[in-house]
Amino acid sequence: MVTESIPSPAPLPGDPQLRALYASLGQRKRPEDVAQLVLDLYRATGVPLDRPTRKALQQASRTSLRRLWAGYTSMLEDFARPVGAQRQLATASELFATVDALPDTAGDDPERIAEVIRAAGGEIRKEFGRSDFLADRLNREQRDASGLGAISKRQYNKRFRLLRRMEAKLARLLAAQRKRDITLTGKSGLVSRLPYELFAADHATAAFLAYLTARANLRSEFTITGQPKAYDTVADALFRRLDPVTAGWFAIAHAHPTAAVLERLADEERGRLIGLWYGVLVEVAEQLETVWQRRPLDRATMVVRRGDDSTTWNQTARAWSTARANWFALLTAMGAEEVVDRVCPGKVPVLVAADVAAWHRSAGGGLHPDTGVWADLPLPWEVLRNGVECPRSLVEEVCVRHGVDPTASGWTAPRAAARPVPFRPTPELVHGVRVGHPLLAKLLRSKGVYSGKGAPGES
Asked: Rounded to an integer, what distance in angstroms lies between the CA atom of residue 413 and that of residue 44?
């Protein structure tokens, strides 16, 4: 992604709850469990909580213990992480003199992997990126001329094949990390890549960010009534107790860039965030184009067809929606709405499963009004990369044609300020379907229940 990777948090004796809250930004901890961590943090630091905040947090934590067996859940508490190159690095350290044994963390670091490939390639005179076994491999005469005559053909080929596999592994790792970053961005904005120092500088800020992120990272549910909003009464209580002077407003804007937050930032901070979010828009648009080129979607209905990569598209579309809304909010806060007058890329809808579409029709609904607007506007990557014109006036014209309010629906303006929704315990889900008990959910998942065609994947 365009933002910096998160450095490993430095050990902070006495603050394990703070470290746990920071780790939860890239995980799928239930909000109830994060609420308990927040209570533990304030108890450990001795900082008193006001009565409304304490009551809201206690309600959430008690709900977790009462309903779900002391914090047990059958669902994974992390987003899928790519498999690193630890095994390949270990083999390289055995075959190449220039490669030392590396810690396991190096296998997840693309830069370290690339350094190893380049260093090892120098031993056998292989250039990085040139891995064709027929065209790029040295023959006997070339090996002798390069000073590799002491290495047998078999040993040379063994090393060449390893580096070839490592380059392919590096490409897959980068793609998987990019996909995970996009998924996290679509769920909780930029907060998962927030440096630890900014997160931990103020305990009230850390508590709010961790809880709101846990709410945002909840899995999607199989429903036609809309997904639950992240900003609930517990998040609102934590937000209200933020100190106007000491709160980390720049950090908060990574996840909650409302007008009330952005007005507290300096112009330089807002400018940095505008640049970050625009970079995310460009990168996400490229990923959308990649999915589209593999198989163009049915823009007229946005209903999944056999062969569509709905998981990747929907994760990327959510990231686009988040980045676009936050970019609009920052431009408005900076008084730079004229940018949208010239460049106003449209929203990107998710693909809908056929059974969900049928459910909509049976309930008296139909296609979402945004679908027609999306179908009549230039594609996002055409606007951002190819220079296809998509000004605000065009979007407004298309919205009016389809009976959509361009401002209220978020096509040409930031989303309305978040209003807190009531706290609701986190349900156990099997492929997006609610199940009343975690042990039952585990059994149903193991038996493949609810996994038939058309059921939405957990995202």
From this structure: 43
